[in-house]
Write a structure and sequence with these properties.
CATH class of the largest domain: Alpha Beta
Largest sheet: 7 strands, mixed
CATH architecture of the largest domain: 3-Layer(aba) Sandwich
Helix content: 40-55%
CATH topology of the largest domain: Aspartate Aminotransferase, domain 2
Distance between the termini: 33 Å
Strand content: 15-25%
Number of helices: 16
Order of helices and strands: HHEEEHHEHEHEHEHHEHEEHHHHEHEEEH
Radius of gyration: 22 Å
Structural class: alpha/beta
CATH superfamily of the largest domain: Type I PLP-dependent aspartate aminotransferase-like (Major domain)
Oligomer: single chain
Strand order of the largest sheet: 4-10-9-8-7-5-6
Length: about 425
């Protein structure tokens, strides 16, 4: 069969909904200033779908720093990969300050979060090594492990007994191959909102002699006394061998970093192909990140406001009988039962008639019969936003129980 013939006949698990979903449920276009309220299809909506946790996307100091940097440098400088001609003092300054903030000696600035963690994992492993990872790890971690030529074992989500069992399997293999063991978990799981059990995982290190890598995209800037993330929150900073986070959540920007001991970071600098052969981050991005990082460290009131909103929203949902699972972070999933078409009906109702915009997750991302409405509170949401949203959820709950959405037939938008 011709390659393109096969592709044209099989739209894929999400592509099958293209005709009725694109432009509304998938690839929706939010307009206006990034914030708590945006414009969707010409109407103002309370927006719960952007990872602007600390509200830095439109902070006046950030906007000014971005504008000044773009005027001073343009978007091209520096040209070339960092190894060749794209190195600057500010790139080094940013990665070093980030590393020290999360309790590590050295750091490496990366161009993207998804590409970054994928490339870190790829560079670390050989075919003799074994990876043990949480079964609900983000797609970027899973994709990295699909490239791994050695063994990989997934343990049941946050199940330490399952982790222990898989570590035993890994140790038997590495005792024979001479390889090492890498354990990977997320600091905060972006769909469920629960934290990885870092303390319990770290307690197994002496027994199995593994190294621990955490992806803390949803923890950095939000958790811990200073905002240094999930490891700080759980008191296990020294037990985390490699700490990774993207800028896309708390810092509202492109980019990422990995931090650890100097010798390992040096190895990554010379062996991460995605960085060796990619253009360096443009200077406005680097200067913008430095400003955002400064505010993250010096304005704890942003984090305090975020958590005020998180507690208010989550408490309100629970009081109304909604199942939000085991989240103990900002990520707020609302679990419902129903089919994808029913989910489309209730989401359209919320957006059109109640002015509330949140993300919808259905099969095949999650099991059949389940719907997740995913809300991301931020520091710029107001108590009015939360009240409007809670009232909307109460209304759609009544409609779901009455079967209003059961026969919804989505139409092309």
């Amino acid at each position: 069969m011709d390659l393109f013939d096969r592709i044209l006949k099989q739209a894929g698990p999400l592509g099958q909904y293209e005709a009725v979903a694109e432009g509304y449920y998938m690839f929706p276009q939010l307009e206006g200033e990034l914030g708590n309220r945006m414009i969707f299809k010409g109407k103002e909506v309370v927006c719960w779908s952007i990872n602007n946790y600390l509200g830095l996307a439109n902070h006046p100091e950030v906007r000014q720093a971005d504008a000044d940097a773009a005027k001073r440098w343009g978007l091209a400088y520096p040209m070339g990969a960092r190894m060749m001609s794209g190195e600057t003092k500010l790139h080094s300054k940013l990665e070093t300050e980030l590393a020290h903030f999360v309790g590590k000696e050295a750091g490496y600035l990366l161009n993207y979060g998804y590409q970054g963690i994928l490339s870190v994992i790829d560079a670390l492993l050989t075919r003799h090594d074994v990876v043990v990872y949480d079964a609900e790890s983000h797609a970027c971690i899973v994709d990295a492990l699909r490239m791994h030529l050695g063994k990989r074992f997934a343990y049941t989500h946050n199940d330490i007994a399952s982790l222990d069992k898989n570590l035993e399997r890994a140790k038997r293999l590495t005792d024979e191959s001479g390889g090492g063991i890498l354990v990977i978990t997320e600091g905060v799981f972006g769909m469920r909102g629960d934290q990885g059990k870092l303390r319990e995982i770290a307690a197994l290190k002496e027994k199995y002699q593994f190294r621990l890598l955490i992806d803390d995209a949803h923890g950095f800037g939000m958790l811990g006394k200073t905002g240094a993330g999930t490891a700080e929150e759980q008191g296990v900073t020294d037990d985390v061998d490699l700490y990774f986070s993207t800028f896309a959540k708390s810092m509202a920007l492109i980019g990422a970093f990995v931090a650890g001991q100097p010798e390992i970071i040096r190895y990554l600098r010379y062996n991460m192909r995605s960085q060796i052969f990619a253009k360096s981050l443009p200077m406005p991005i680097v200067e913008g990140a430095l400003k955002r990082f400064e505010l993250l460290k010096t304005k704890p009131e942003l984090r305090e406001k975020l958590w005020h909103n998180v507690h208010l929203l989550q408490a309100g949902l629970r009081e109304r009988g909604f199942n939000i699972g085991d989240t103990n972070t900002c990520v707020t999933p609302v679990y419902l039962q129903g089919e994808p078409e029913e989910a489309m009906g209730l989401v359209k109702d919320m957006r059109e008639n109640y002015g509330v915009f949140c993300s919808i997750v259905v099969y095949p991302v999650i099991p059949k019969g389940m719907i997740i409405l995913r809300l991301i509170p931020t520091a710029v949401h107001t108590e009015e936003d939360i009240q409007v949203t809670l009232e909307a959820f109460s209304a759609i709950r009544e409609k779901m129980l009455a079967g209003v959405y059961r026969d919804f037939v989505p139409q092309p938008v």
